[in-house]
Amino acid sequence: MDAYIPLFIKAAQEETSKQQRALLHQCPRRRSNLNSAGDLTRAGSSIGKERLDALRDVLENGFTWTRSNTQRRFHEAFLNASVRYLFSHDSVPPDYREIMDENKWTDIRQQCLCMTPRRFGKTVAVGMFVAAMALTVPGCEQAIFSTGRRASSKLLELVGQLVSQVPGGSERIAKSNQETVWITHPCGTVSKINSYPSCAKTLRGVGGDVVYMEEASFMDLAVFYEVIVPLLEVDKTALICISTPQVRLIFIMSIISPLFLCRVSNVYAYFSHCCPLSSGLA
To answer: Residue 185: left (phi > 0), alpha (psi -120 to 50), or beta?
Structure first.
């Protein structure tokens, strides 16, 4: 009888091992092992933190143009709005309280409006951020909505110029035309930048991880209702808006978030993170 005990134990171990393998196969893989963001499988590393550091480095040192104080404030607000997407590929759920403390943020909100008069550098700031995001975040897709085809082409041309300012950036441009720019990465993925004119009939179905509205207060309301609002239902999508002051913008932004606060008498408008009018910012 004792001779069968080792055989019984061995059979039980084999069956247990078989069940564990089947269970492991059914469990979802950790996101860092999917290679969706390049070689980011190192244990204990934070993909989001690496992206934040890389974005800040490109914004500060990658371009030949020097940012103004206003543009630095814009970019910090853009990073705050994009942080949920930047950390979305971490294998461990991010601790946003820790992220806020490290970056000296009081909160994290995924919608951002920067409203200043003309010639404060809004468009250039957006172009810098779009270029830096495409160069440092593999596989990201950015969508820029402009008021017309000419403005759309002009902004995409600016993005291509800024990408070329970064060392090695021009060699990474795989595709460039009036509507899109593709940036390749060493891991084999492609970051896409799409720029669309304001026409609701032709924009249904488009989207991106980071969405930009250029001159938001002058954009067709149909684009806002039929294209932008559905994109905000995705939990990691960031919305970044720039505009010159316009009373009509109060109505648009109050729909997106109840946190919107407008003080027309002081010419201040806060929509999540907003850079208000100030002569001392430039």
So the answer is: beta
Which pLDDT belongs to residue 75? Answer: 94
End-to-end CA distance of the chain: 89
pLDDT in tens, 117-128: 888 889 999 999
Side-chain half-sphere CA neighbours of 71 within 13 A: 18
Q: What is the per-residue pLDDT across 234-259, written as a single tens digit (0 to 9) for each?
A: 788 999 988 887 655 555 555 554 43
pLDDT reading at 101 higher than 60: yes
Q: Is 88 exposed, middle or buried (0-12, 13-18, 19+ CB in 10 A)?
A: middle
Token pair listed for 168: 């090695």
Which CATH number applies to 45-270: 3.30.10, 3.40.1440, 1.20.58, 3.40.50? Answer: 3.40.50
Per the prediction, the chain carries an average pLDDT of 78
Token digits of residue 199: 């026409």
Parse the chain into domains and list their residue ranges: 45-270
Q: Tokens at residue 240, please?
A: 């970044």
Q: What is the 3-state secondary structure (H, E, C) of the chain?
A: CHHHHHHHHHHHHHHHHHHHHHHHHHCCCCHHHHCCCCCCCCCCCCHHHHHHHHHHHHHHHHCCCCCCHHHHHHHHHHHHHHHHHHCCCCCCCCCHHHHHHHHCCCCCCCEEEEECCCCCCHHHHHHHHHHHHHHHCCCCEEEEECCCHHHHHHHHHHHHHHHHHCCCCHHHEEEECCCEEEEECCCCCEEEEEEECCCHHHCCCCCCCEEEEECHHHCCHHHHHHHHHHHCCCCCCEEEEEECCCCHHHHHHHHHCCCCEEEHHHCEEECEECCCCCCCCC
pLDDT at 117: 82
